[in-house]
Specification:
The protein is about 40% helix and about 15% strand. It is an alpha/beta fold. The chain has one domain: Alpha-Beta Barrel (TIM Barrel). The strands form 3 sheets. The chain has an 8-stranded parallel β-barrel, surrounded by 4 helices. A 3-stranded mixed beta sheet has the order 6-8-9. Strands 12-13 form a two-stranded antiparallel sheet. A hairpin with a 4-residue loop joins strand 12 and strand 13. The relative contact order is 0.14. Bound molecules: beta-D-glucopyranose.
Length: about 450
């Protein structure tokens, strides 16, 4: 990475892993008494999913979980970040418990521990029970209690074996994709709904943390996506636009959690759609957390654009390598993200809970190998960026590659492949890509392979 000459080093107990999420890999969404989620519905809404793809089968992980843990073992993973499908545990989202749904995750946790892999569950990775959406979903203030009740059930079942929990995955994406622009479930498009959904997501997080600290024995945190914003010019309008973009995406969730207040810029962005919230809500949201998960993929160079709704800020395309999802490869942004968190929020313990890239994977070589040099390169530069942040004093304790498996990339379907393991969706055959082999070497050498050792 340009500018970085330091030797790559990671602490001795650094936690190396890979991540997935329930709807993206499990398949069998209604098996064993599970209820439908909003993704079940969204994938059946004409025009919303690339290629008409659905999560009905996905990686068939719900049936192949044991083989998948064996695969993790082959890669040498020390941790596995996965999510729990709320509607498997509570088919209607509240009330009646489906013991078989909970058992699935209990068996998975046991199998991981048998293989010396630390389980890192996330309670909510976007697949809201459809029955709750019928009651308003994230727009209904009662959802904080529904979420805490669900969380309590899962803690009671798994906290004897799980030592590190996450409440939500990327609440910003839930509101931006699900309530503001409508590209993700539940597909709403409302400037008036987005801040309300955001607030109740945060209240739900706070309620689940509070519940955990009352009864749980270990550590709990939240996972956010951070995309650092760099102003295209030093002009006043571009600088102000960059601050709005940064407040909206990077501070909207972390400021309330760590500092107890929303960024001022949100009022400017949402205007008459920005509600006033009671102090008691802000206190609920600001529960002390034990760790922070950061998902990093790319950066954004920002300029003022009067027509960009609702931010009046737009990205400026860079002349640089981009992934298949059109995201600029910019490893320096990960160092900048981690040092920004250290400075702004008091150096909390951080795990990079997702980092990776969708690239076109060339056809299998004659000897069966899947050579994915761009993904290998992405991991190399981004891991060097993490090491640099640690050298600069950031308390980074682990790294999870996104993703263990090629999977359903939400509305973009199966065509965008993020896996370090290739999945043939017709046969469900898994093949470790070269990036997976490279990552296994990273783990085995605690990162020293990055020094060309
Ligand atoms: C999400 C994942 C997603 C990945 C790549 C994150 O926004 O947590 O579910 O697949 O990024 O887009």
């Amino acid at each position: 990475m340009p500018g970085i000459t330091r030797r790559v080093r990671f602490p001795a107990n650094f936690l190396w892993g890979a991540a997935t999420s329930a709807y993206q890999i499990e398949g069998s969404p209604l098996a064993d008494g599970a209820g439908p989620s909003i993704w079940q519905r969204f994938t059946r809404t004409p025009g919303m999913m690339a290629n008409g793809d659905t999560g009905d089968v996905a990686c068939d992980h719900y049936r192949r979980w044991k083989d998948d843990v064996a695969l993790m073992k082959r890669l040498g993973l020390r941790a596995y970040r996965f999510s729990i499908a709320w509607a498997r545990v509570l088919p209607e989202g509240r009330g009646r418990v489906n013991a078989k749904g909970l058992d699935f995750y209990s068996r998975l946790v046991d199998e991981l521990l048998r293989n010396d892999i630390v389980p890192l569950p996330t309670l909510f990775h976007w697949d809201l029970p459809a029955a709750l959406d019928d009651r308003g979903g994230w727009l209904n203030p009662d959802i904080a209690d529904w979420f805490a009740d669900y969380a309590n059930l899962v803690y009671a079942k798994l906290d004897d074996r799980v030592r590190q929990w996450a409440t939500l995955n990327e609440p910003w994406v839930v509101t931006d994709g699900g309530y503001l622009h409508g590209a993700l479930a539940p597909g709403h498009r409302s400037k008036f709904e987005a801040p309300i959904a955001a607030h109740h997501l945060l209240r739900a997080h706070g309620a689940a943390v509070q519940a955990y600290h009352a009864n749980g024995k270990h550590r709990i945190g939240i996972v956010v996506n951070i995309e650092p914003k760099y102003s295209a010019t030093q002009g006043a309008e571009d600088l102000a636009a960059t601050k709005r973009a940064e407040a909206y995406m990077n501070r909207q969730y972390l400021d309330p959690v760590f500092l107890g207040a929303y960024p001022e810029e949100l009022r400017e962005i949402f205007d008459e759609a920005w509600p006033a919230w009671p102090d008691a809500d802000m206190a609920l949201i600001r529960q002390p957390i034990d760790w922070l998960g950061v998902n990093y993929y790319t950066r954004n160079v920002t300029r003022f654009d009067a027509n960009a709704y609702p931010l009046r800020a737009a990205p400026v395309k860079q002349d640089a390598t981009c992934t298949e999802t059109g995201w600029e490869v910019f490893a320096q942004g990960l160092t900048d993200t981690l040092t920004w968190i250290k400075q702004r929020y008091g150096n909390p313990p951080v795990y990079v809970t997702e980092n990776g890239a969708a690239f076109y994977d060339p056809p299998r070589a004659a000897d069966g190998r899947i050579d994915d040099p761009l993904r290998v390169d992405y991991f190399k530069t981004h891991l060097a960026a993490v090491s640099e942040a640690i050298a600069q004093g950031c308390d980074v304790r682990g790294y999870m590659a996104w993703s263990l498996l090629d999977n359903l990339e939400w509305s973009l379907g199966f065509a965008k492949r993020f896996g370090i393991v290739h999945v043939d969706f017709a046969t469900q055959v898994r093949t470790i890509k070269n990036s997976g082999k490279f990552y296994a070497d990273v783990i085995a050498t605690n990162g020293d392979v990055l020094n060309g050792a």
